[in-house]
Design goal:
With about 400 residues, the chain is of the alpha/beta class. The protein is about 40% helix and about 10% strand. The chain contains 13 helices and twelve strands. The chain has a seven-stranded mixed sheet, sandwiched between helices. A three-stranded antiparallel sheet has the order 9-12-11. A two-stranded parallel ribbon has the order 1-10. The protein binds pyridoxal-5'-phosphate.
């Protein structure tokens, strides 16, 4: 039988007819838990949503107005693949100001949400067998896409005793001649750890001069409760090594608009743009105009949202810390609590199931973010203080019942 014939037979046997790479593609469990929680809600159950990572605030009015005006003004067609020149310029100005580095519009590629930057960058850089160092626990898409393109994901373990800040000394032991990409994420999802300037300088000292790229996922850079945000791109000599990933989803409560961007060397930006041409063509035109309004308009909406997140952070961390068997660090950024619940059950997938089914509280198991998430839960506090307070009450009851359950 021909090779093609054998392959077709194998496909028929496996039943799905999909390419091999689809077998290693992961997912983001938050969307699955959300779907299950919605199903329970539709069946009449009361569910408190602490699973999905999106601000519950509405997009500020002046940004919506800009989009409506843009639609009326005819921004309803294709744009250049890397983005409308004025939008790229507004992003370049904003990133240059916030990171203290020189950025031109040629450094910027606008994408529908920030996620495609991860996908495109790994498609553009990685050959099969190349190694990607990524945080574990960490945003699940890093590992998923690395595997999808045939690379070898190498976990960089984040530890609670270091407040989940990646340890530069560990990095030294993970680097090999095949390391092509290192992923940083600060403020971090799911642990809320924030890398200090000293951490970034130590990391820079280790990677400087090596032929590798750092993907610096800075999507939560404006959701910070103390101190100032530092980007590795601002460390001398690091800008050319770094691709900054950022966007509008979290800062301006625009998850559904789909607008993000990457900032990188212009030669690499051209290749990422080519991937845009091959996939999306461009980001929605009126969305880009709204993005300009977001960056150049008043910023007090961001400050108000962060102040409210801080209030909720304190409610959820104080409440969790009062529950027997729970220990929770106080997040310095982003809007996630990552309590250690190992004393209740190290199998947090089972515990999260129990919370959803028995208490109507939707949370994620830490293992949704990698093997090192075992023993932790992730709670997004993008919900009202009232809802958080009720969730804490329900969790207290559910944990008590859980401890008293008959065991097999
Ligand atoms: C760490 C991290 N990076 C990137 C993203 C993706 O953002 P966007 O919605 O702009 O694609 C998320 C969204 O949850 C995130 O948590």
């Amino acid at each position: 039988m021909s090779v093609a014939g054998k392959r077709r037979e194998d496909m028929a046997a496996s039943g799905d007819g999909l390419a091999d790479r689809m077998r290693v593609l992961g997912t983001e469990t938050a969307f699955e838990v959300l779907a299950r929680a919605k199903k329970l809600e539709a069946a009449g159950r009361s569910i408190i949503h602490l699973e999905i990572g999106e601000p519950d605030f509405d997009t500020p009015e002046h940004i919506k107005e800009a989009a409506i005006r843009a639609l009326r003004d005819g921004y309803t067609h294709y744009t250049p693949a890397a983005g409308i020149p004025e939008a790229r310029a507004a992003i370049a100005e904003s990133v240059a100001r916030s990171r203290g580095i020189p950025v031109t519009p040629e450094h910027v590629v606008i994408t529908p949400g920030a996620k495609p930057i991860m996908f495109f960058l790994m498609m553009a850089l990685l050959n099969p067998g190349d190694e990607v160092i990524y945080p574990d626990p960490g945003f699940p898409i890093y590992e998923s896409v690395a595997r999808f393109v045939g690379a070898r994901p190498v976990p960089w373990i984040l530890r609670e005793d270091r407040e989940f800040r990646a340890d530069p000394e560990d990095l030294r032991t993970l680097l090999t001649p095949r390391t092509k990409l290192i992923i940083l994420n600060s403020p971090h999802n799911p642990t809320a750890g924030v890398l200090s300037r000293a951490d970034l300088e130590a990391i820079a000292g280790i990677v400087r001069g090596r032929p590798l790229v750092i993907l610096s996922d800075e999507i939560y850079c404006q959701i910070l409760y103390s101190g100032t945000f530092h980007s590795i791109a601002s460390v001398p000599g690091m800008q050319d090594h770094t691709v900054i990933l950022d966007g509008f989803s979290k800062t301006y409560a625009m998850t559904g608009w789909r607008m993000g961007y990457g900032v990188m060397r212009p030669a690499l930006a051209e290749r990422i743009t080519q991937l845009m041409v091959n996939s999306n063509s461009c980001t929605a035109a009126f969305t880009q105009i709204a993005g300009i309004a977001a960056l150049r308009g008043p910023q007090d909406c961001v400050a108000r949202m962060v102040a409210e997140f801080r209030r909720r952070r304190d409610v959820i961390v104080d409440g969790l810390s009062r529950l027997p068997g729970v220990r929770c660090l106080r997040p310095q950024g982003a809007f996630y609590a990552f309590p250690n619940v190992r004393e209740i059950d190290a199998d947090t997938r089972r515990l999260a199931e129990h919370l959803l089914n028995e208490a109507g509280v939707a949370v994620l198991s830490g293992t949704s973010f990698g093997a090192q998430g075992e023993g932790y839960l992730r709670l997004s506090y993008a919900n009202s203080v009232e809802a958080i307070t009720e969730a804490l009450r329900r969790m207290g009851v559910a944990f008590e019942r859980y401890a008293a359950r008959p065991r097999a």
